[in-house]
Write a structure and sequence with these properties.
Elements lengths: L2 H9 L3 E2 H21 L1 H4 L2 H7 L10 H6 L11 H20 L3 H20 L6 H14 L9 H14 L11 E2 L4 H24 L8 H14 L2 H6 L3 H17 L2 H4 L4 H19 L4 H5 L7 H15 L5 E5 L4 H12 L6 E5 H8 L8 H6 L2 E3 L5 E3 H10 L8 H4 L4 H14 L1 H4 L17
Parallel strand pairs: 3-4
Antiparallel strand pairs: 1-2, 3-5, 5-6
C-alpha cells in the first residue's frame, strides 16, 4: 500500500455523518451558551473595560489584523462595532445550531467568535481554554457538518419525497462521507497534542519532582487565598492525597495519546478527563468547559445509537409500532418523512393505509377507511390502537430525539384539550399548507391527516 493510500485511508475513509453533526451541535451549542450567558459577553462588562483601556495597551493579534485588514493593520474596533459583531455572531450561531445554511452560518459564527476572543486577547489577557474551541469551530466550518441533523438536510429529503410522490426508505445513521472523518480526527489530534504538550512541559521544567505533592499544594493554597476558594484551601492540607493526584494527572496527560491508537480507551480517558477538569474548576477555579465539550469528538455516536437500537429491538421482539398514512397525499408523505428523519432506532413502520386496509380492517373493527384518512392511526405491537392526538403522543415515545416534546403532551389536562386542538389543526391544515397534488382535491379525502 502506497503512502498516499495510507494517508487517504486514515483521513478520508468514509465515516458516519451523524458523528460530525453531533460534534457540530455540541460545539456550537456550548459556544452560543457561553456568548449568551457568560458575564464578559452577556452584559459586555469585560468588553467595555477593554474598550476603555488606553491605546498603549492595545496590541492586535495577527488573527484580528487579518479580520480587520480593510480598516488598517492597527485598527481598533469601537465598543459599538464589537456589539454589532456580537449580535451577528449570535444569529450565525443559531443558524449553525439548527442547520439552516449550515456552512455559511458556521463560517460567520467561527469568524465572529475569533473576532471577539482575539479582541480580548489583544490586551494581553490570554487564556488557553478558549483557543481550542476557536480552532474546532473553524475546522467544522470547512466540513460537511450540516449534511445530516440539519434543516438543510431535512428540506432536501422533503423536496425529494415531494418530487417522487412517495416515502423514501432512509436512515441517517447509515449516511457516510469520505469528508466526515478528517474534521473529527484533526480535532482529536489537537486535543491530544495539548495534553502531551502539558505533560512534556512539566517534565522539562520540573521532571519527576513535579509529582512531589508540594507543587499542587502550593498552587491550591495560593489560588485559594487569592480567590477566596475555601475548598481549595481545605484540599491543600492533604499532602499525600495531592501527591497521588499529581501522579494520576501526569499519567493521564502523558498517555492520553492512546485514544488515537486504541479508540476504545476513550471509555477510560474521557471520565478521567471530566473528573480532572471538574476538580480544576471546583478547587482551583479554572474552567475548561470547552475541552470537556469537545470530548464529543472521541465518542462513536453512531455506533452507540446502533447498539441501543439493536438492544431495543431485541427487547421488543423485533415488533414495531405501525403508522397508517395515505400514500397518495403529499402532505402525509411529508409528515412521515419528518417522523422517519428522527426514527434513529428504527422502531416505526410506515404503511400506506390504502394498501394495508384489507389486512388491518378487521383489527380496526368499527373504523372505516375514511376514519383512517381523517386522522392518524397507530397500531401497537400488543394489539391496541391509538388515533389522533394520542397516536402522535405514542409516536413521540419511540423517537428519543423528540422526547423533549413529550413534556407538552403530558402537561396537566393535555389529554382533555389535546384532542380538540389536534382535530382543529387536522381539519384546517390545508389553510396552513397548500397541497399541490390532485389526489388531495378528491371529496372523500378532504379531511385527511
Amino acid at each position: 500500500m502506497s503512502a498516499r493510500e495510507v494517508w487517504n485511508n486514515y483521513w478520508f475513509n468514509p465515516a458516519p455523518l451523524l458523528n460530525l453533526a453531533i460534534c457540530r451541535i455540541a460545539a456550537v451549542g456550548f459556544q452560543l451558551a457561553f456568548l449568551l450567558w457568560n458575564f464578559q459577553y452577556s452584559n459586555f462588562t469585560v468588553i467595555k473595560g477593554f474598550s476603555e483601556q488606553p491605546d498603549t495597551l492595545y496590541s492586535p493579534l495577527l488573527v484580528l489584523r487579518f479580520l480587520t485588514f480593510p480598516f488598517g493593520s492597527h485598527y481598533r474596533p469601537t465598543l459599538e462595532v464589537v456589539e454589532v459583531v456580537y449580535w451577528i455572531t449570535i444569529f450565525a450561531g443559531v443558524l449553525s445550531l439548527i442547520g439552516l445554511m449550515t456552512n455559511l452560518g458556521l463560517v460567520a459564527f467561527a469568524a465572529g467568535c475569533l473576532f471577539l476572543q482575539s479582541f480580548i486577547y489583544s490586551f494581553g489577557d490570554f487564556h488557553h481554554a478558549e483557543a481550542v474551541m476557536m480552532i474546532a469551530l473553524s475546522i467544522l466550518a470547512l466540513s460537511p457538518a450540516g449534511a445530516v441533523l440539519s434543516i438543510d438536510d431535512l428540506r432536501r429529503r422533503l423536496l425529494r419525497a415531494r418530487q417522487r410522490s412517495q416515502l423514501e426508505e432512509f436512515n441517517i445513521l447509515e449516511e457516510k462521507s469520505p469528508f466526515a472523518r478528517w474534521p473529527i480526527l484533526l480535532i482529536q489530534w489537537i486535543i491530544v497534542l495539548l495534553y502531551t504538550s502539558a505533560f512534556i512541559s512539566k517534565m522539562f521544567h520540573s521532571g519527576m519532582g513535579w509529582m512531589n505533592g508540594y507543587t499542587l499544594q502550593y498552587i491550591l493554597i495560593e489560588d485559594g487565598l487569592r480567590d477566596q476558594n475555601h475548598l481549595g484551601i481545605w484540599l491543600g492540607q492533604f499532602h499525600t492525597l495531592l501527591q497521588i493526584l499529581q501522579i494520576i494527572v501526569m499519567l493521564f496527560q502523558g498517555t492520553f495519546f492512546l485514544v488515537l491508537i486504541f479508540p476504545w480507551t476513550a471509555v477510560l480517558f474521557l471520565p478521567m478527563g471530566v473528573a480532572f477538569h471538574t476538580g480544576n474548576y471546583v478547587f482551583l477555579s479554572t474552567p475548561f468547559y470547552q475541552w470537556v465539550t469537545l470530548y464529543a469528538v472521541f465518542v462513536p455516536w453512531t455506533q452507540a445509537v446502533q447498539f441501543l437500537s439493536r438492544f431495543r429491538r431485541v427487547q421488543a421482539a423485533q415488533k414495531k409500532v405501525e403508522i397508517l398514512y395515505d400514500g397518495q397525499c403529499p402532505l402525509c408523505i411529508r409528515s412521515m418523512t419528518q417522523l422517519r428523519y428522527f426514527d434513529w432506532f428504527n422502531r416505526l413502520a410506515y404503511s400506506d393505509v390504502l394498501k394495508r386496509w384489507p389486512s388491518v380492517a378487521e383489527r380496526l373493527h368499527g373504523t372505516t377507511l375514511d376514519d383512517c384518512l381523517r386522522e392518524m392511526y397507530v397500531l401497537l405491537p400488543e394489539g391496541s390502537v391509538r388515533k389522533g392526538f394520542f397516536a402522535f403522543r405514542e409516536i413521540l415515545r419511540h423517537l428519543p430525539p423528540l422526547w423533549p416534546l413529550l413534556v407538552f403532551f403530558h402537561l396537566p389536562y393535555a389529554s382533555r384539550f389535546g384532542p380538540p386542538i389536534y382535530n382543529f389543526v387536522a381539519s384546517n391544515r390545508f389553510r396552513f399548507k397548500k397541497c399541490d397534488d390532485d389526489t388531495c382535491a378528491r371529496p372523500d379525502h378532504s379531511n385527511r391527516t
